[in-house]
UniProtKB/TrEMBL annotation:
It comes from the Bacteria. Keywords: Membrane, Transmembrane, Transmembrane helix. It comes from Sphaerochaeta associata. The chain crosses the membrane at residues 21-42, 48-65, 77-98, 110-128, 140-160, 227-245. InterPro entries: YjdF-like (IPR014509). The lineage of its organism: Bacteria, Pseudomonadati, Spirochaetota, Spirochaetia, Spirochaetales. Signal peptide: none annotated. This is Uncharacterized protein.
Amino acid sequence: MKKWKRPVKKTLKQMIVQRDSARLVHYLLRLVVILILIAQVLNKNYENVFLCILTLMLFAVPSLIETNTRIDIPDTLENIILFFIFSAEILGEMRSYYVTYPFWDTALHTANGFLAAAIGFSLVDILNQNERFSFRLSPIFVAIVAFCFSMTIGVIWEFFEFTMDMVFGMDMQKDTVVTTIRSVMLDPTKSQKIVAIKGIEEVVVNGKELGLGGYLDIGLIDTMKDLFVNFIGAVVFCIAGYFYLKYRSKKAAFIKRFIPTLTDEKPEKDES
């Protein structure tokens, strides 16, 4: 394992010379968010001000983990996490990319499945490398645990979205327009017979047409789609992680860029 040493502050020139991409990305994204924050304050848009502050706090989490623990986060993984936060909070929420680009939410949930699997994978891999524990999980069990961890995170997030919608009247679980519905609730005989209505072109609510060109599915399709793409992201990472642990081959070595590792327990003394 690597020798642990508390990260030191670097100047911008040092980061460029040393090609410290994680810190460069961190500072550049933080600068962009701070500029956006100032603009939102001037515009008195305090909801967006809160989102900017939340984004800055989330940006600091990877650095805090590395500074206060013996966990080393690879630059590639840290950069993806930072871009993920920026894409979700600033572009998705503030710039309304979730509505403007239908694929935006799908892409982020896929990335979330991948990242959560990487975190779950690393947690088990760190335990496997720790000499204090007498057990060692096989590569297939590490992959299964990582997959289950990722899917659990995805489900918890959907619980959060549902709670925000029900309790605070938000619309985190985006609606979907469909032209066909099937339900036993439409069966007048109450005998569990499925009744289908196809080719729906318009829906009237309280005498007013919604003008959507179909029936409005409230959140269910969006939730299941999010869980499905989370599943895809988790499976992709877990398969790659399995082959990496199983064979430790150069072909799967790229996966190391996404797996946090445990450094040596004794800090390295700074002789300077």
